[in-house]
RNA sequence: GGCGCGGUACCCAAGUGGUAAGGGAGAGGUCUGCAAAACCUUUAUGCGUCGGUUCGAUUCCGACCCGCGCCUCCA
């Protein structure tokens, strides 16, 4: 079975096939680095990451390019009010973005920056002017003439045919031929950051960078272009218009858009007080793995309701999967294999892959792995797992984690970094007791813990349960959970 | 107003023209010195409302109610 993906262009689920065998070329619209990324941003980026990972698991080499928008009106304004250069300003937030992305398991794509492609953008604009698709206004700005691109609106399913002539013209935009024409190049206003180029001084319009950089890295026609649903119009529509006008060829073949999320049932907004950056959530004590799990638990085209209750539920779910893996890796099994477990592992992988093939149905993929965990756990309890059953079961789990990336327990060091950052930013007051408690377990070294466990073992051998329980309580206090199993004492950091 | 998406148990949420995945939470139980983990049982004759099509609809059609998105460089 092959991957079937919803294509915004056709509004249908289509079978995905890259243009070149075995290689997927994809471009994702990245962040405008003017602030810390919020959960909404990361829902989209995580969805794209999942897609990229699944492409790779499906056997494709993936060339994944993402832009960093490091110049726009907001950046220029904020940098000016902070009294720093645009470069200084964006460097800080780009770094923060990349740290955050890594924190929730996003594999780093090839990064391209708008400010590093100014000359190419100027060339792009001048070619559009030559071909008659763009024009220069009196102030030195350049606009794309959408009347020259009859297919304008094909992605967002908008009909502009009736609005092109005689459309109302905003007073501010008197120099555009049509109100719908969009800026390719903006002439500088006094004091604004600007670049000197053959087409005159100024800075790129927002859409230009994506066309220029995607085609430069991936070719004039590539396989897939991704972003948040808000980008369908005008951003991606404009990219198509300017790119296809220039090349005369189809731009991206698949358009992948992630739906916005709700926070506590409402649209996220600063005024509602439900606006959270990734760092805010970690400061409240939530694990990066919980956040990633919650973000992936609802298929990318559905509206996800991101709640704190959901975050807690996600943490427990991840815990369950991690426990299962621990159980398998640490257990003692008798030699041999069972047809039941062999079949279970195989079927689970099939179900999981089948679900992801179906337009990335992550909810069903998760259901498949949990079904396996339940059945295997039940078998475990009755000795129904043999030595040779363990590798296929673990491998199914690994296959799951190649996509979802939540099983490795590296939450504590990641959270520590956020705590350090908060301290360095003078935001100690935002560090919750929950976060401090979650980091407790990082205080003791493995050796310290092992020593305590050995003491516990000795006490238990002497049937001194009181002493043993005291040690267990002490460790629990330090964030270490001790479990006594038939295979010995096991511990883990909470 | 134009275009589009959705309303499934206490919460999150998948899904199908033939009688409701999975996770969390709750309750009861098994195991255990006690915990933890795990397992078992249990929690929607019901899938926004009202009609229609059909042998049969949660799934198709229509109307209505509610929520959400894009149409203003917000992922």
Give structural attributes:
Rossmann fold, alpha/beta, about 500 residues, RNA-binding, Four Helix Bundle (Hemerythrin (Met), subunit A), single chain, 3 domains, 5-stranded parallel β-sheet
Give the amount of beta strand, in percent. 5-15%
CATH superfamily of the largest domain: HUPs
User: Under CATH, the topology of the largest domain is which?
Assistant: Rossmann fold
C-alpha end-to-end distance = 40 Å
Any idea what the shape is?
globular
Helix content: 40-55%
Poorly predicted ranges: 163-173
Which architecture of the largest domain would the CATH scheme give at its second level?
3-Layer(aba) Sandwich
Structural class: alpha/beta
Radius of gyration: 27 Å
Number of helices: 16
Q: How would you classify the quaternary structure?
A: single chain
Average pLDDT, all residues: 93
């Amino acid at each position: 079975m092959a991957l079937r993906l919803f294509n915004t262009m056709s509004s249908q689920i289509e079978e995905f096939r890259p243009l070149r065998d075995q290689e997927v070329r994809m471009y994702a619209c990245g962040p405008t680095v003017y602030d810390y990324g919020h959960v909404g941003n990361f829902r989209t980026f995580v969805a794209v990451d999942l897609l990229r990972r699944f492409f790779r698991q499906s056997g494709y080499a993936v060339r994944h390019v993402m832009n960093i928008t490091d110049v726009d009106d907001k950046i220029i304004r904020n940098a000016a009010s902070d009294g720093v250069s645009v470069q200084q300003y964006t460097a800080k937030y780009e770094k923060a973005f990349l740290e955050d992305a890594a924190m929730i398991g996003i594999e780093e794509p090839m990064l391209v920056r708008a400010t590093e492609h100014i000359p190419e953008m100027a060339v792009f604009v001048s070619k559009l002017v030559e071909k008659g698709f763009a024009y220069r206004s009196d102030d030195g700005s350049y606009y794309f003439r959408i009347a020259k691109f009859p297919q304008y609106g094909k992605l967002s399913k908008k009909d502009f045919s009736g609005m092109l002539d005689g459309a109302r013209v905003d007073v501010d935009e008197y120099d555009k031929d049509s109100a719908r024409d969009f800026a390719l190049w903006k002439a500088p206003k006094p004091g604004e950051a600007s670049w000197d180029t053959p087409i005159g001084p100024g800075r790129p319009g927002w859409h230009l960078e994506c066309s220029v950089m995607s085609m430069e890295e991936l070719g004039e026609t590539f396989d897939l272009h991704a972003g948040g649903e808000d980008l369908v119009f005008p951003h991606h529509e404009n990219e198509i218009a300017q790119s296809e006008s220039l090349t005369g060829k189809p731009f991206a073949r698949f358009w992948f858009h992630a739906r916005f999320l709700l926070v506590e049932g409402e649209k996220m907004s600063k005024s509602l007080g439900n606006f959270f950056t990734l760092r805010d959530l970690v400061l409240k004590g939530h694990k990066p793995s919980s956040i990633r799990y919650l973000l992936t638990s609802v298929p990318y085209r559905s509206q996800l309701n991101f709640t704190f209750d959901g975050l807690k539920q996600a943490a427990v779910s991840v815990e369950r999967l991690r426990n299962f893996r621990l159980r398998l890796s640490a257990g003692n099994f008798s030699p041999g294999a069972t047809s039941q477990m062999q079949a279970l592992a195989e079927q689970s992988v099939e179900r999981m892959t089948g679900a992801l093939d179906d337009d990335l149905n992550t909810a069903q993929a998760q259901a498949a792995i949990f079904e396996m965990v339940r059945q295997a756990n039940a078998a475990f309890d009755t000795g129904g797992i043999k030595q040779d059953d363990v590798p296929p079961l673990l491998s199914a789990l690994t296959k799951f984690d190649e996509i979802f990336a939540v099983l490795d327990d590296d939450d504590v060091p990641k959270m520590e970094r956020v705590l350090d950052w908060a301290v360095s930013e003078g935001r100690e007051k935002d560090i919750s007791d929950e976060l401090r408690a979650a980091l407790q377990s990082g205080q003791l070294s493995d050796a310290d813990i092992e020593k305590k466990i050995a003491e516990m073992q000795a006490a238990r051998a002497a049937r001194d349960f009181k002493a043993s329980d005291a040690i267990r309580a002490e460790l629990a206090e330090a964030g270490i959970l001790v479990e006594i199993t038939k295979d010995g004492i096991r511990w883990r950091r909470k």
